[in-house]
């Protein structure tokens, strides 16, 4: 085995990220980067199809995960600072687990990420990407597990990392590094996605926030649905009162990115079109006799995964954005006209035309009436998915795609001199105004004439 060397990665968000020769965790992380499972993340874009709207948003989950690892190391140093100040013991083993878990947290994402997860959910075969991640890490036939197993002479490191990523209930402060209101994941993606999309909104005062982070206990309710609902106290990240303006801006940045980038109507339209295409392909893939209708052969990674009993880890790891995009190119010649049409539309960016219910006015009652009118007038085409209704997007101050934003440890707390940690909506009028979800309802029309008809009928009762 060669001698450890200091390695460096240049990153547009964090600058120089260094993997030091004399740090065993850094060297483990560097070795993990070269595994096939981690290299696969080069072929999965962080923002899926957002490049159709923001052409420079082509950054990958590979780059994001390295940034999350770098940020996690900083959060661990903050934990050490806070625990020392409080006279509490530092758990070096748990710190190592948290940092490596941060690096590996996205291994289980599928092609086009949450879109693919939604397709599987609609087929009643859903598996959360966190579960896939844990399976990738624990896989005895993979390249990740041997590296993790060798890290602790006594063993157990691999399972400790996977367990942390799967855990619903936090048990210590190290869980907050990978899952909290101020975890390493969102601290990277907020800055990276803003930079790579070129949007002017969503800036955060990162250095000031990191300087003002404190560790305090808060009360949480157990996530176990069979539990008693008892309250427990766990440590998490909170902020000194001096950081209130920066904390407000941090949450506003998340809100803005969700509203303007992640839930952009064109992005959502393309996601719905891809989902419609993949559901149709999956329907053909179940029966060997109908596979040819997709324009793909039975050895294609998509067909193998969608086939009966095909949702194995081996088949899943063959899927990425590149594999699916290549498959869509072949689908353009599919015998099935619906598959061929959708594939051609996606490749040429001939998208369905949209109506946002908000365009009819800001009054909630008016919006509901217009939605009912469209539902009634176009029921047959909605059932046939010639028109797609999208009401799955909503944004609030704690919105997290695919996540649980209602639990206490996922909310942001400010330290009060008398009460201790106080959830920020109880202190900030600005943030309190945005605590209720803002729901988006859009319709995507295969035929532009239907969209125009829906517009012309505005205000008419069906």
Which short descriptors sum up this protein?
alpha+beta, Hypothetical protein af1432, 3-stranded antiparallel sheet, two-stranded antiparallel sheet, 21 helices, 12% strand
Description:
- The protein has 462 residues and is an alpha+beta fold.
- Among the domains are: 7-246, Hypothetical protein af1432, CATH 1.10.3210.10; 352-396 and 437-462, no CATH class.
- The protein is built from 21 helices and 9 strands.
- A 3-stranded antiparallel sheet has the order 5-9-6. The chain has a two-stranded antiparallel ribbon with strand order 1-2.
- α3 packs antiparallel against α4, α3 (61-85) crosses α10 (184-197) and α13 (265-285) packs antiparallel against α17.
- The longest helix is centred in the first third of the chain and has 25 residues, at 61-85.
- The model has no long low-confidence stretch (mean pLDDT 92).
């Amino acid at each position: 085995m060669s001698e450890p060397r200091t390695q460096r990665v240049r990153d547009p968000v964090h600058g120089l990220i260094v993997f030091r020769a004399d740090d065993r965790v850094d060297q483990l992380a560097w070795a993990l980067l070269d595994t096939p499972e981690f290299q696969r993340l080069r072929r999965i874009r962080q923002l899926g199809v957002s490049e159709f709207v923001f052409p420079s948003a082509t950054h990958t989950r590979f780059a994001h995960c390295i940034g999350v690892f770098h940020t996690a190391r900083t959060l661990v140093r903050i934990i050490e600072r806070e625990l020392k100040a409080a006279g509490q013991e530092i758990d070096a083993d748990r710190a190592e687990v948290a940092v490596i878990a941060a690096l590996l947290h996205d291994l289980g994402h599928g092609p086009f990420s949450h879109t693919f997860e939604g397709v599987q959910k609609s087929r009643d075969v859903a598996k959360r990407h966190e579960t896939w991640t844990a399976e990738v890490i624990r896989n005895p036939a993979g390249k990740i597990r041997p590296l993790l197993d060798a890290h602790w002479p006594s063993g157990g490191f691999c399972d400790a990392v996977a367990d942390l990523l799967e855990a619903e209930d936090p048990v210590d402060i190290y869980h907050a590094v990978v899952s909290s209101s101020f975890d390493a994941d969102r601290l990277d993606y907020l800055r990276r996605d803003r930079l790579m999309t070129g949007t002017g909104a969503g800036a955060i005062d990162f250095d000031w926030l990191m300087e003002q982070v404190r560790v305090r206990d808060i009360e949480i309710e157990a996530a176990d649905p069979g539990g008693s609902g008892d309250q427990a106290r766990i440590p998490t990240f909170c902020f000194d009162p001096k950081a209130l303006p920066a904390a407000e801006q941090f949450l506003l940045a998340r809100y803005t990115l969700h509203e303007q980038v992640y839930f952009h109507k064109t992005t959502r339209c393309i996601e719905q079109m891809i989902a419609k295409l993949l559901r149709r392909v999956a329907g053909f893939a179940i029966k060997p006799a109908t596979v040819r209708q997709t324009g793909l052969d039975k050895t294609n990674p998509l067909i193998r995964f969608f086939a009966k009993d095909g949702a194995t880890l081996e088949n899943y790891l063959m899927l990425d954005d590149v594999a699916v995009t290549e498959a869509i190119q072949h689908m353009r010649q599919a015998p099935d006209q619906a598959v061929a049409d959708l594939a051609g539309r996606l490749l040429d960016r001939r998208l369905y035309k949209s109506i946002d219910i908000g365009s009819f006015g800001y009054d909630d009652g008016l919006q509901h009436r217009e939605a009912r009118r469209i539902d009634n007038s176009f029921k047959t085409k909605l059932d046939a998915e010639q028109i797609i209704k999208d009401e799955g997007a909503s944004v609030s101050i704690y919105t997290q795609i695919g996540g649980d934003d209602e639990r206490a440890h996922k909310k942001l707390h400010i330290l009060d001199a008398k009460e201790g940690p106080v959830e920020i909506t109880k202190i900030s009028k600005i943030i309190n105004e945005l605590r209720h979800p803002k729901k988006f309802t859009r319709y995507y029309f295969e035929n532009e004439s239907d969209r125009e008809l829906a517009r012309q009928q505005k205000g008419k009762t069906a």
